[in-house]
Amino acid sequence: MTRYIIIKLARSAFTLWFVVSAVFLVLRASGDPLYSIFSLGTPESTLDIYREKWGIDKSIFEQYIIYFQDIFRGDFGTSFFDARPAWDLIVERLPNTLLLGGTTFVISVVAGVSLGAIAALMRGSKWDRGIMTVAVASFSMPSYFLGLLLILFFSLEMRWLPTAGAGTWQHLILPATTLGLTLSGTIARFTRSAMLEVLRQPYMRTARAKGASKWRQIVWHALPNAAIPTVTVIGFQLGWLIGGSVVIETVFSWPGAGRLFIVAVGVRDFAVVQMFILMVASTVIIANLLVDILYGYLDPRITITGIKK
Fold first, then answer.
1. What is the domain partition of the chain in residue ranges?
2. Per-residue 3-state assignment (H helix, E strand, C coil) for the chain
3. pLDDT digit string (tens) for 174-206?
4. CATH homologous superfamily of 99-266
5. What is the dihedral of CA 143, 132, 295, 209, to 10 degrees?
6. Which helix (H) or strand (E) holds 37?
7. Dist. CA 281–CA 135, nearest whole Å
8. For 221-280, how does the pLDDT look when each residue is reduced to its tens digit (9 = 90+)?
9. Per-residue confidence at 136, pLDDT binned at 50, 70, 90?
10. Global pTM?
11. Residues near 177 by Cβ (< 8 Å), separated by ≥ 6?
12. Residues 216, 89: Cα–Cα separation, whole Å
């Protein structure tokens, strides 16, 4: 198990380095950020002063080395547009993003696992068809379109909820519901498939033959054995929440890190964009790493190369 964890950690570190390096190079290839910040009539001599001040007058290789040296010192750069550390700008917005992501995660897991299990247990019924129809529609529909539909109905038509902003629990309902519906559809579909596979196994017939109650069959036999594919999907969704919130925060004007990222991309604010991507990549990688490690405990047969016979 120790070797399994060490190899996973090494792969995760390599993946994080690759993502951060790719983002660094793509941003530098996108052009000079000063032309997005200053007006067209700004003298070139003034621009040269800021290029030297921000270190973008050096070669890409030199900037790359300096960037990683700064990261290891805990310096993630200074915003070109705001003149504040990128770390401070992200951390300032992060609580709102975590609030939205945490609420969404609870909604999606509870709804997705419950509905997927119900659909599997009532296979072929109207409940099964109805749940799967809603699930497929929810994860197939773009989240921004679903968000706009919810705004049109609950905010503009019914006047029940605010259209945008933050500050009260009412402001959280629509963005969290939009993301929650999108994610719960995927979780429900995988949970249903995993449960159906488990329900056909011989040990389930044995449990029924021994007279185990329906509740015991589901809780003690079906759900634990259906956990691995479900945990996989949930782990992917957990890592996606912060990055996936970018669109929803923009649609609902939610003052989170995702919305800040969109603004930073528009003005080519290198430090903020790199900091956000580093945070999202780290979240996704850590979530997947935890899922991989959890595999080893859920099923000891799993090794680095697959299932041990």
1. 99-266
2. CHHHHHHHHHHHHHHHHHHHHHHHHHHHHCCCCHHHHCCCCCCHHHHHHHHHHHCCCCCHHHHHHHHHHHHHCCCCCECCCCCCEHHHHHHHHHHHHHHHHHHHHHHHHHHHHHHHHHHHHCCCCHHHHHHHHHHHHHHHCCHHHHHHHHHHHHHHHCCCCCCCCCCCHHHHHHHHHHHHHHHHHHHHHHHHHHHHHHHCCHHHHHHHHCCCCHHHHHHHHHHHHCHHHHHHHHHHHHHHHHHHHHHHHHHCCCCCHHHHHHHHHHCCCHHHHHHHHHHHHHHHHHHHHHHHHHHHHHCCCEECCEECC
3. 898 888 888 888 888 888 888 888 777 777 777
4. MetI-like (1.10.3720.10)
5. 160
6. helix 34-37
7. 27
8. 676 677 777 777 777 777 667 767 788 888 888 888 888 888 888 888 888 888 888 888
9. confident
10. 0.77
11. 107, 150
12. 50
Cα separation, 200 vs 206, in Å, equals 11
Helix segments in 86-142, DSSP class H: 86-121, 126-140
pLDDT digits (tens, 9 = 90+) for 14-42: 888 998 899 888 888 877 777 777 777 77
